[in-house]
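Progress note, project year one: complex with zinc ion.
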Amino acid sequence: MARLGAHGEFREEIRFCKFCGGMFRYYGYGYGYCEKCTPIDNEMFHRVKEYIWEHGTATMFETSEATGVSMKQISQYLRDGRLEIPEDSEIFIRCELCGADIRYGRYCPECAGRAVKELKSALKFDLFEIGERPKKGRMHYLHGSKENGK
Ligand SMILES: [Zn+2]
Ligand SMILES: [Zn+2]
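Model obtained:
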């Protein structure tokens, strides 16, 4: 989904590519990669997405190994709200505020709700950054171990 600027207009600004760190012109949409890295990113993203949907219970480590995409990059997709993982997946990330398991995004619904109440008008995050809590609380995190029960 396109991400518009704070006021909904297309605004040109200089950003640093999340992948190579190079400067590029950002027009208020896209995921923060330069022209050079956008196709690479799209390709990696699809590889990860397909792998996760085919192997619903894979861990972050397995997914990274199988796709050749770094765990850091996979977690970036989750943080960006681009990647949503199946309900029975063992891949979770943590709420940036309280550390609760979430399936995607940056904050758990509880923290997001609290922030909305406290900040009211000044909502500092996008709706897609609020992640769902997983139904079952397995304990595999990003920095998690190689070994898993399966
Ligand atoms: Zn780049
Ligand atoms: Zn939280």
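DSSP finds four helices and four strands in the chain.
The longest helix spans residues 37-54.
No further modelling is planned for this target in the current period.
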